[in-house]
Write a structure and sequence with these properties.
The complex is a heterodimer of chains A (about 500) and B (about 600). Chain A has about 500 residues and is an alpha/beta fold. In chain A, about 25% of the residues lie in helices and about 15% in strands. Chain A has twelve helices and 20 strands. Chain A has helices at about 55, 105, 150-155, 205-210, 225-240, 245-265, 280-285, 295-315, 335-340, 350-375, 450-460, 465; strands spanning about 5-10, 15-20, 40-45, 65-70, 75-80, 85, 90, 95-100, 110-115, 115, 175, 185, 190-195, 320-325, 375-380, 380, 385-395, 405-410, 420-425, 445-450. In chain A, the strands form six sheets. A nine-stranded mixed beta sheet of chain A has the order 4-5-19-9-18-17-3-14-11. Chain A starts with 6 loop residues before the first strand and ends in a 40-residue tail after the last helix. By secondary structure, chain B is mainly alpha-helical. Chain B contains 24 helices and nine strands. In chain B, the strands form four sheets. A three-stranded antiparallel beta sheet of chain B has the order 4-5-9, with no helix packed on it. Classes of the chains: A alpha/beta (about 500), B mainly alpha (about 600). Chains A and B meet through strand 13, helix 5 and helix 6 of A and helix 4, helix 7, helix 8 and helix 9 of B.
Chain lengths: ~500, ~600
Amino acid sequence: MTSLNRRQFLRGAGGFTLALPFLPSLLPRSASAQDTVFPKRFVAMATHHGGIWNQNMYPDLSTLTESTAISGQTVRGGALQLETAAGKASLSRVLSADSAALTSSIAEKMMVLQGIDVPWYIAHHTGGHLGNYGRNDGNDPTTGITEFRPTIDQIMAWSPSFYPSLDGVLERSLVIGDGRLSYNWSSPSTRAGEVQDIAAEHSSLALFNRIFVPNEDPTSTRTPVVDRVMENYRRLRNGNRRVSAADKQRLDDHMDRIGELQRRLNTTSNCVDIVVPTVDSRSYRSQSSYPYDPAAMEGFWQLHNDVIAAAFLCNSCRVATMHCGDTFSTFQGDWHQSVAHKANLPAGVEQEVIVEGHQNFFEAVFLDLVKKLDVEEAPGVSMLDNSLVMWSQESGNHTHHSFSLPIVTAGSAGGFFKTGRYADYRNLLIDKSAGENPTELMHPGLVMHNQWLANVCRSMGLSPAEFDLEGNGGYGIFYTQPSANWYCDPAWYNNRAGLGDLMPFIT
Amino acid sequence: MNRQILPTLFAVGLALAGCQGEVSLTPQGDRPGGTQNTNNGSTNGNNGLNGPDFKFACDEDAELPEIPLRRLSKEQYMFTVQDLLRQVVPNQADQIYAAALPRVSLIPEDAPQLDGNNKHGGFRRLDQAIQQQFVDHTLEAATVIGTQVSESAANLEAMLGTCATDSDTANDDACIVDFIESFGQLALRRPVTSDDIAFYQSVYADSGISTAGVRDMIAVMLSSPDFLYQVESAADGVDGKPNQYNLDTFELANRLAFHFWQSMPDSELMAKAADGTLSDPAVYEAEVKRIFEDPKTNRSVQRFVTEWLWLDELPEMNGLVGTPLYDAFAGEDSPSDDLKEDMVADVVSAGSYYFQENPGSFDDFFMSQKSFARSAELAKIYDTPIWDGGSEPPTFSDPTRVGLFTRAAFLATGVVNTRPIMKGVFIREGLLCTIPPPPDANAVNTMIDLRPDMTTREVVEEITEAPGTSCAGCHLTYINGLGFPTENYDALGRSRTHQTLFDLDGNILGTKEVNTLSHPRVPLDTIHEVSSGAELTPVLIDSGQLYSCFARNYVRFTFARVENDQKDGCVLETVRSLAQSGATLPEVMISLALRPEFKQRTLLENP
């Protein structure tokens, strides 16, 4: 843990420096560090494809020393065992890094989860990571789900439980990267309108500016322009001109955002002495070699990590999502066809490319942010401890199959999760062989993805009334295909846990 | 020679039986229970099978689907800000816009989309999401523009007149009111009412000529719903259609301008809106023609052609340059950074040429053998002289390079292999509007690899046409027969008779003659035999399905929503029938603007 006194300094790769007040000073004046419930923060990182073999993604099965039952079926858990050799620390081949970065302290704050399923053929998707299961490519040949729902990050961002106070909060959430990951109602404050994609930001500098560049002089006596703009929209909505109900909804959607802008303009950053970054992430992505330059990818994402960490440190934001389509590999060509679709060739050539790419992502992006968040905000408690950083992949150990989607986390969400754990929720009584590699079996999970997301929501302080939109106890639409087919058998999921249940081993 | 060999429903029945998830053969309109989320409330209810002859049924009594409060696309916003400034401060417009550009550039890009899950067949205009950044950055840009005007005496005088800078304070109040009326009519794109004047005077909130007051007024006007959206309150109702209304002349002027110019109306159009003559059919038609002939219409033509034909999806051509295999394949034609854009420009220029500059029919555009290659690199691929952009374009040297889909942008892949499957999918979905059933998910993990002794086609056939597999039904019915006829072009679009076979290190293992003999099913119940793009083209043309699909796309683009076969049947049929009849593309585009549906909207106060 990085222990900082009176003032903390964050130095990012972009060269910007923030002079930060000691975090407890950001808390309500009546609170003390000892009796204060610190704000929770949530980061979701989503990467493409998956397709990583179990032996490469997960810790050794021998670490699963405990067992319990979910609806009569055995599941396993155990403590993460960090192995260190020759300057490299590892929990698995993918979950490995320089030993100075992946320390035992960090490992103790991580969870590795196996056996969490989307029990139907969602295939190419980006919405599955955070609960908008309808955002897929419509590949289910039967019915599937195409209805959209907000994602949990946006439920948090607009939750009064998550943000009991918006003082100093300049952005409710940061949506970064390749888009189509975060969704919300077009009118978030009223939970009304269409569910729409939240535009993602590629520029770390633009993101920084939205948070740290001070608003205009608040001493002006003139009515703020934004208030006049709001009034203008109300004039149309409530005036004499004929507008349809759908027009009014569109005006409401726009006014919701004006309202959010008004709120932000009346909010000041908790941080001072801000030096604007000298490097923008777009300078990396604009390089023609970017698609096969892991170092440039590292630069791009670490600059965003800097902004997230700074925003969290300053209490200017508590939610971030990062959708990363980068391969973190030097491979040139069609990754989807030439690598992801060949992930299971027994020779393992393409598998090695995938392992290398995901290990790079783990170390350069996931661990980089985890380290940046692991700064003390009260004696013995780091900001990471009060956060949950989650890395999810599109597919399980077979590309496009959503059995056992790997989930890697850091932070206990303020003690909600028992960290330092590896949990395997697969039902080993059922084998599903697919693809070219008969030894790389798939076992359906006993924990549904909806259940995991509900646990995440609860860890962030949300009540079921806020997140259980479907009334199923979990998060998002729960769907199983009506009958068995090549992909899976709904009978496999008869013994699944309740979608609203707390998950064993980690809670 | 193309010949029809099996016009039988029995054959397609066999083929479809092998498909996963057969398509419906019935026309669709509103889909009950609408499960598809869209940003404009429409459903993608078409499958391209709108009847045996691909005609649409026109129900003149049908009410149009509603288009609620259309937001300007980012491109429309940018053009509108620039055109507005050029109208009011022509000499300072570029400087003022340059100051606002850093804020404007932060507005999120619109995503080409049909609905939330599908981009094919979609247009950026259909992305009607309202993003926080759109609201934030349009207000910031408006404030910058207000500041630029108000803090420069020259700009202030140019925009408000000398009353803003003279020493006479007695005329200041009138000066401000005049400004609200004059600038307001341009920015709001409608007459300014007394209520507006009172509101903007309250925004001004100062006496005399106030820098802050002018700044704020401009900022609020350029952030107003009238500026950022196409507000259509409509005029009188349409007989027999209780929820359908005629647009007023200003709303009509806006529709025309944003449709054809991607921008606001010019002064001439606004004048005809103001004096009401735009409601005179003859005046309206003349105005539509004038607007169409304006060079600004090329903005819409280029946007339509680019998105209709999936040109945004063309990959970079130089991504693999420097790798042994690709370098061996490309040889002396190693692609530059610009080749992809050159290929896109070839198609877009063809669009501009036939849609506007040298009006031609849909068939002329589709079957054109003219090269619009303006770079030596692409001209070499086409084996033509470089086109100078002004004179008559040269003709392809290869007589079989006939058909839009034989242009390099539809052949090039950025890798060594051609992609006959994707070529077939593009023609089936993009040009014929038939969506093949999704592949068996087991199959999508299958890679079309280089083989030492097989052409790409042979590999595709081995994988997708094996008897008894779920792949075969769909690939034989929908895809492969459309992708194979152009296998006489390589992955850079170069003509070839043989495919060079490489190993992964770029060593040549041999050559093999390419086979273009194919059996496309167009329409699905008719099997043809063709051996080239030149032979496939008339098959597509003769089917009538091309025109139907073109109509769908153009109607989508025009109304910024997915078409509804029942409610939009009249406009769809207008476009389809004209395109098939040989009318010029300008005639087709103009005809839609002349339809009553273009001049009306549905407005549901209590849906």
